[in-house]
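Need tokens for this chain, all 324 residues.
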Amino acid sequence: MSVEKTIMMDAWIRGVVEAIHSAPHQTVLYLAGGASQALGWLMSVPGASNTVLEAVVPYSRMSFVQLLGKIPSQHCSRQTAEEMALLAYNRGLKLSSPGDPVVGVGFTGSLASSRPKFGDHRFYLSTRTSDRLSVSTVTLSKGLRTREQEDTVSSQLLLKAIANACKVQTASVSHLTESDMSDEHETHFSEDQELEQLIDGKICFKVYSFSSETYRSTAERKIILSGSFDPLHEGHIKLLEVATSICGNGYPCFEISSVNADKPPLSVSQIKDRVKQFEKAGKRVIISNQPYFYKKAELFPGSTFVIGADTVARLINVWILKLL
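Here are the structure tokens for all 324 residues:
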């Protein structure tokens, strides 16, 4: 690449990263087998803490298996990239502030190495947001580039994919040659489909941020009042307000589990009806799929849980029965 083209590409990279950092989206990245330079670009431009929640490179086979929670049929495949993006998205939900848009990024590649490869030099990258799943399949011309150059190309395309997921406009720059092959797919989800995925356990929770209240940027803890809220009433609202004033710095959230311990799960229409109450009241509500408090604690680490008198009485009764 000529010096002029290198300067232009460096300017493009910096411009894209700055635009990503200025977007409200927060990102978790899981990368294996390539696109390593993208992490350096994201971290080297000021504002990375606005964007990057976590980045993991599961390079060894065991690390990869532990990340996925299973042995994949193929390490480098479209399905694996999509699964990595979904895992990253769910991780991002847990790490981000309530209501902040989250992007999960998955990348798996089989690029040039120190030993000749019989198969294609290829990679798959996927991004997942609340309402969209995007995946790209790229096959590079074999022998055209060094490993470093293939990593550069995959990093550039990954950066572009993150920008698209963050709804950031980027200048049109060609990263591939005519002999390279690329295929892109995008799936959009309606609110009903998101809630169905939640009920099925594919995504861990969904936040509805109807609250207009602002909190200090240092607040990371959630102050959560869980319940069925059928219906939501003034007592619930007052209880969370008092708890928030006692606890201090934190994000007050109501939480409803779509899955019940001893009842059938809520339907999509039931969830939407209950959410409307919080929209009318201007309050933030989280829809999860965990009915038990010990599971909620895993889902919302570091949070403070507010419980009402009925729940206190139930917990005391259980404790007394265990002592008898």
